[in-house]
Design goal:
By secondary structure, the protein is of the alpha+beta class. The strands form five sheets. Strands 15, 20, 21, 22, 23, 24, 25, 27 and 28 form a nine-stranded antiparallel β-sheet that branches. α2 crosses α3.
Length: 722
């Protein structure tokens, strides 16, 4: 009898919440549709197909004919529909109730629309922790696919990974298929015969083995250069031809069919893990660079094959410490999830809760919560989409609770850092303050447009910045994996790599040398002479009538000079203004000091004539991607005509204003690119104390949306001395 092997082809097609419609459509035309066109005639082949909820729902709306074809393939036993959490969250990031809810919700959607209830699921980004087993099984799943890397991290040898295994938690059993890294890198990047020869060798060494390929469907047409290679160059047809020609020993089957044919190889317990590259990306930058250096050095050693399985990366949850912005989204999501659970326990209206739950689930989509070879957290439109749904869920919850029109202020450890943050809200605004971190305003939500004006990003070192400085290039072969490509989407990126000492938030208080200039502040060369930016402020909440106020005070210093800085943030009921008081005391008489208040505004991109700065008289000063330096003025405006949004900053005294873009040099699947993150607006003064050693300023920031827009108009954020 000829030795045989079973091959499970598990494709994962995904587009995240908030991605551009054109990207969905282009991926459909480049990947999803042509793959189906090529696959359909090969009647002897089976595949397992996972399509994430956001993408599947888009397909149902825009290309229902695609779902019709899937139904026919499902009925013919050619395609197994793989389930999973509806909006593709990292499951370890969620409370158990949301893990189970997301999986069950998507299974129900698939049943309604494709007529089948999935028994297996895709684990997003293959991020795994043992405790997931119980929730996954309780949600109705019997099996999933991870990577062989997970199993090797448990001490298993690569040659042992020729079938699926059982894992157990609290008495629940789950079958897990180890996806082959070898197959991930040969399909579709290497000649077809390399994959066939590899599988033939496995068949001879392990007759009846089950080998699994589990990876992104976008690598068949959407990833750079793959459309020409996979379709125009005929790679996929050649691959399916080879599978068909060798079907007497190479059985291409779904995961469900493999389970029917072959028993589990045994039981194991897998450690907290993801695919190899993800574990590397999760490390702090210095550790990531060290791991890269050590790996490259050891690869030259004859001992590397024995040592490789012991060289490992980090833990996915540490993205929440690597990127403060990830933790901001995560803690915002947890706040909504906890309140939703309480509303459900209180028996509130089920229809309203279902809508809120959908917004919560959408706000859990994983892509902007991490960063690696893909844009991830560096993509503003993905971050904005997360906040959009979480803010909408928050507003709907407060409306359901009957508290939306009430002005409130509460202090809790909202971001899980051991310190209390302050949430102030009314029916128009939600302001989140962090007294322990310089009294900064770290989130400002405009309910009417479901937008966080502070969905900003700090520029920080990345391990791949070494490649930026080394220059463009490509991996071996005609078509390189995303993980191997070095492509520059703009010129001179090496000159644009820059890092921020502090997060790009608002109400950030700076003292600079009097000679500081726009250029020196933009480049980060101007030294911080005070200790107010990131050190704790004392905070008190004050409530009275229809007003709440957060009063923050710090006895600090600048240039060694003791200075008391006070800022009070006030919200009135039924008001669209956030009022801020700034008062400096104990200033030295007759000594001029350079003081600046940093604001950052996210969500208004650069690079177009309809996105611009203007002065108080309405004269345009340049695009939002330009640097602006104006003196002796009372304010500046930022306009985005596409969004129909204007943001006006006004001061109650003559001021100098610097404004400039914050841009990152970051990595995406298409290469290294410059991404506009936010606009910094920094009023600054050479201040001189009055006779009492005091100085004060009022700032008002107003956002206005044009009346023909679908969102409410006359939204405002203001600052004033109280």
């Amino acid at each position: 009898m000829t030795p045989n092997v079973h091959l499970c082809l598990v494709l994962h097609n995904h587009q995240p919440i908030g991605n551009f419609d054109g990207v969905f459509e282009q991926s459909y035309q480049d990947s999803y549709l042509p793959f189906l066109d090529v696959f359909e005639p090969y009647e002897a082949l089976q595949i397992s197909l996972h399509t994430s909820g956001p993408l599947m729902m888009w397909l149902a709306e825009r290309h229902p004919e695609y779902l019709d074809r899937l139904r026919l393939l499902v009925e013919a036993g050619r395609v197994e529909i793989v389930g999973g959490p509806q909006y593709e969250p990292i499951l370890t990031m969620l409370p158990g109730r949301d893990r189970i809810g997301q999986i069950r919700t998507y299974s129900q959607w698939i049943q309604r629309n494709l007529g089948v209830t999935p028994a297996g699921m895709w684990t997003p980004e293959r991020v795994w922790e043992s405790s997931l087993t119980t929730d996954v099984v309780d949600a109705g799943m019997r099996y999933t696919v991870l990577d062989d890397y997970h199993f090797q991290a448990a001490g298993m040898k690569a040659e042992d990974l020729t079938s699926y295994y059982l894992v157990e938690d609290q008495g629940r059993l789950l079958r897990i298929f180890p996806g082959s890294e070898k197959l991930r890198y040969t399909i579709p990047f290497r000649p077809v015969n390399e994959t066939v020869d590899f599988l033939r060798d496995v068949a001879h060494r392990h007759p009846g083995a089950v080998m699994t390929f589990g990876d992104d469907g976008e690598k068949f047409g959407t990833w750079p250069d793959t459309k020409q290679h996979v379709y125009e160059g005929g790679w996929l047809r050649s691959f399916f031809d080879a599978l068909t020609e060798n079907q007497d020993w190479l059985h291409t089957v779904s995961m469900a069919e493999a389970i029917r044919r072959v028993p589990a190889a045994g039981k194991t317990y897998l450690p907290d893990c993801s695919y190899r590259e993800m574990t590397e990306w999760a490390l702090p930058v210095e550790a990531q660079e060290t791991l890269e250096d050590v790996t490259h050095a050891l690869e030259k050693s004859s001992e590397w094959p024995r040592l490789q399985e012991f060289v490992r990366g980090g833990f996915w949850r540490n993205f929440k410490t690597k990127y403060e912005e990830t933790n901001e989204m995560y803690s915002r999501m947890m706040h909504v999830s906890t309140r939703l659970a309480a509303a459900e326990a209180a028996g509130m209206d089920g229809v309203a809760l279902a809508e809120i739950r959908d917004h919560l689930y959408r706000g859990q989509c994983n892509c902007p919560y991490w960063h690696g070879a893909f844009g991830g957290i560096y993509l503003p439109h993905l971050r904005n989409a997360i906040f959009e749904h979480l803010i909408q869920a928050d507003t709907l919850l407060q409306d359901l609770e009957g508290t939306l029109e009430t002005v409130t202020a509460t202090a809790e450890d909202y971001d899980f850092d051991g310190q209390q943050e302050i949430k102030m809200s009314n029916e128009h605004l939600i302001a989140w303050l962090d007294p322990a971190r310089g009294g900064r305003l770290y989130e400002l939500d405009i309910r009417g447009i479901n937008h966080n004006l502070l969905a900003t990003l700090q520029r920080r070192p990345e391990a791949y910045h070494r490649k930026v400085l080394a220059g463009p290039g490509c991996g071996d072969g005609d078509v390189a994996s995303i993980h191997d490509r070095v492509v520059f989407k703009q010129e001179n990126l090496d000159q644009l790599v820059q890092y921020d000492q502090f997060p790009r938030k608002s109400l950030v208080d700076h003292f600079f040398d009097n000679e500081a200039t726009l250029a020196s502040v933009m480049s980060g060369e101007s030294l911080e002479r005070g200790d107010f930016v990131d050190l704790p402020f004392e905070a008190k909440l004050r409530r009275g009538g229809d007003r709440v106020q957060t009063h923050m005070r710090r006895d600090g210093n600048a240039w060694g000079i003791p200075i008391t800085l006070t800022k009070a943030v006030t919200i009135d009921a039924n008001s669209d203004k956030l009022s801020v008081t700034y008062l400096l005391e104990n200033l030295p008489p007759g000594q001029p000091l350079h003081f600046a208040i940093e604001w950052n505004f996210a969500g208004m991109p650069s690079g177009a004539d309809d996105r611009y700065f203007s002065d108080v008289d309405g004269n345009r000063l340049g695009q939002l991607g330009d640097a602006v330096d104006i003196n002796d003025t009372r304010g500046i405006s930022l306009s985005d005509r596409w969004l129909k949004l204007d943001v006006d900053l006004r001061c109650d005294r003559e001021s100098n204003i610097w404004a400039f873009p914050i841009q990152t040099v970051s990595q995406s699947e298409a290469g290294f690119e410059l991404v506009h993150q936010s606009v910094c607006v920094m009023p600054h003064w050479i201040i001189t104390a009055d006779a009492d050693g005091r100085w004060a300023v009022q700032i008002e920031v107003t956002t206005r949306v044009e009346s023909d827009c679908e969102v409410p108009t006359n939204q405002a954020i203001a600052g004033s001395i109280v």
